[in-house]
Amino acid sequence: MNLQAAAATASLAQPDTHVFDRWAQVYDAQRNPLLMLEERKATPLLPVISGGNVLDIGCGTGRWLTQLEALDPASLTGIDCSISMLERAREKVRSTTKLVHGDCSVLPGDDTSYSFVMASFLISYIEDLHGFARECARVLRPDGSILISDMHPTTAVERGWTRSFQIDGATVDIAARFRSLAELVAIFKQNGFEVRALVEPPFEDPEQSVFEEAGKLTQYVELAGEPAIYILVLQKQRPYTPLRSPAYGQELQLTNARIGIGPDTWMHGVISIEDGRIAAISGKADATMQSLDLSGYVLLPGLINAHEHLEFGLFPNLGRAEGAPSYLNASEWANEIHQVHSRIIEQYRQIPKATHLWWGAIRNLLCGVTTVCHHNPLYEELTLPDFPVRVVSAFGWSHSLAFDSRLDEMFQRTPAGQPFIVHAAEGIDEGSRNEIVHLDRMHVLDKRTVLVHGLACTGAEISLINRRGASLVVCPTSNRFLFAKTLSRESLASVERMALGSDSPITAEGDLLDEARYLHASIGLDVNTIYRMVTTNPAQMLHLADGQGRIVEAGTADLIAVKSPQNTPARALSELTYADVEVVLLAGRVQMASPDLYKRLPQDLRIGLNLLEVSGHRRWVRAPLTALFDAVENVLGEGTVLIGGRGVRHVEPL
Question: How far is the CA of 508 from the CAs of 124, 475, 503, 523, 529, in angstroms?
């Protein structure tokens, strides 16, 4: 792509694929300031793609494919219209990277196949941009993103730039169409995308040498401050209708229940659910609409678990025996268990990961959790429409300073509108405490940062977290198990942005409700604070935009029903156990029901529910229980399924 004007009468523009085959001969040999600028500015905007499926549209000779490979995607696919370009790409990329010959009118992959799509210097070649946007929306999963880059249309038109290259002493122009950024954004918005980032950088010092080599330093000076390219990051919004799957197209109204509309307020009303959302909260039922009678129950918003490792859902506690010295930090624990408990770990790893993930989700579902922030790669299983809980996908993450040398790089790659989650200060030694200052010096402590644990924090570290606008997720029973210590009530009360997590059964006592009760009964934390820590606080910290954590009109219909207490919603929640949760709705669909409420369900809403018994309490759960039990018992033996330390068995209904 040469930065030069070309008279219309002398244009050699060739809109067919042969021009790209010819370009492939010299593409990698010619330095291009536009591409240099793009790589510098786009790299920090890349999302965390580890464990995700990625598509590079117009991949050319593999310029971006090699960089994307280094980010550990679960799969990587490149598509290009030029066979010659793809042949050169194959020489560079890994054998596992799939290359597809085709154009962008039909993208490879099933619906919702990819978590991230790259379209580098492609848009100006596309005639049917509406069709392209629709295809991108088709193959991207909800909350997936696309990065688009190209010449800046305003500068290109004003300066008369062409898409061209030099070969055999001649300039070959390529037919291109420059659309305004407003038009581009409007088309993608019409197809369900929202803007996450837009940068319009000018050439800078690193590109100057290219102009000098080409004898065009004057042109570089003339372009000072003018945008040379644009980089646009768009995120696919979750569809308004339906929220999760076609099954949620059914209408349902919830009648005769008190509704918790905040930590200290009940109201009486009827909730009407349409297409996964709360269509209305009114005072009168619709006689024509199917209903679930909740007489004797109250409704609370579905809970949000702000920190979880779902793939450890079946594991037992792994650590030191009671009475042994506590660990000093999480690294000491992690290193030790792989030596002391290696046999147990290896045995449980023989169970398929998908099975672990499902049991981890069921553990959360049983205690009223509808949304989980899974602090690990977004495995494909977690994105399936029949997964028991909603798993947050739009965030960047790193494990910790101790286990990730690229932590600052991962932070920079997190889109500006998404949170960045990292374990920090998980221990009781000086090194753990110093991690907060270390993160601050690395410039990764700001309003996007969500720190997990923070056990070693003193008042000084909490003050720094508050000043930077960062958030903290606490997992008290996990900390108690490993370090015989949790944050004090005074320390917790001083944190301005705080949520609750259940970590995993490897270290935690049980589930999210166990964590909430511990905070109230053992730490003495205010019940209203605890209520917000599992509802509105994590929704805000994790940038959830569908009304999670609240019961509001137009919000997602994530709801739980419990026996009617005589106290406030916050006090009721702080005293709950999993045995008190008797129905869970995820986007309006019944995912779990007690025997009493199962009997009240309309017949068609019972389809897909199977009977489970947890420590003597029976629950109908929307899950393939036969297959899940078989997968565990084939490894561990019959009657061995435990989730969160509680025995579980499959019950055949009478």
Answer: 53, 8, 6, 16, 21
What CATH number is given to the structural domain containing 337? 3.20.20.140
C-alpha to C-alpha distance for 219 and 44, rounded to whole angstroms: 28
Asked if residue 56 lies in contact with residue 78, where contact means CB atoms within 8 angstroms, the answer is: yes
- For 119, the domain range is 8-236
Say how many CA atoms lie within 13 Å of 602 toward its Cβ: 13
**In angstroms, rounded to a whole number, what is the distance separating the alpha carbons of residues 495 and 545?**
23
Q: Do the beta carbons of residue 137 and residue 191 sit within 8 Å?
A: yes
Using a 10 angstrom Cβ sphere, with 0-12 exposed, 13-18 middle and 19 or more buried, the burial of residue 290 is: middle
Distance CA 446, CA 431 (A): 21
d(Cα 634, Cα 629) in Å, to the nearest integer?
8
Q: Which residue type does 578 have?
A: Y
CA 187 – CA 191 distance, rounded (Å)? 7
Of 42, 48, 43, 38, residue with least CA distance to 418: 48
pLDDT-wise least confident of 164-178, 277-291, 381-395, 486-500 = 164-178
H helices of 556-619, in order, are 569-574, 595-600
pTM: 0.66
Q: What residues contact 411, with CB distance under 8 A and at least 6 apart?
A: 396, 398, 420, 442, 444, 449
Gap between the Cα atoms of 400 and 388, Å rounded: 28
Taking alpha carbons only, the member of 414, 638, 359 closest to residue 542 is 414
Among the candidates 554, 585, 611, a domain finishes at: 554
Is residue 371 within 8 A of residue 302, CB to CB? The reply is yes
Residue with tokens 């995308």: 193
Residue 356 or 125, more confident: 356
- Token pair belonging to 222: 């003339």
Domain assignment present for residue 252? The answer is no
What is the model's pLDDT at position 128? 87
Residue 525 and residue 405 share a domain:
yes
**Does residue 163 surpass a pLDDT of 80?**
no
Of the chain, the percentage scoring pLDDT greater than 90 comes to 65
Strands 229-236 and 140-151: antiparallel
User: How sure is the predictor about 654, in pLDDT bands with cuts at 50, 70 and 90?
Assistant: low
Tell me what the mean pLDDT of segment 551-576 comes to.
91
Residue 553 is given by DSSP the state: T
Indicate the helix (H) or strand (E) that contains 19: helix 18-23
Task: Tell me how far apart the alpha carbons of residues 374 and 161 are, in angstroms, rounded to a whole number.
Answer: 46
DSSP state of 519: I
Inside any domain, residue 544: yes
Q: In percent, how much of the chain has pLDDT > 70? A: 94
Whether 167 has a pLDDT exceeding 90, the answer reads no
Residue 600, C-beta contacts closer than 8 angstroms, at least 6 positions apart: 292, 293
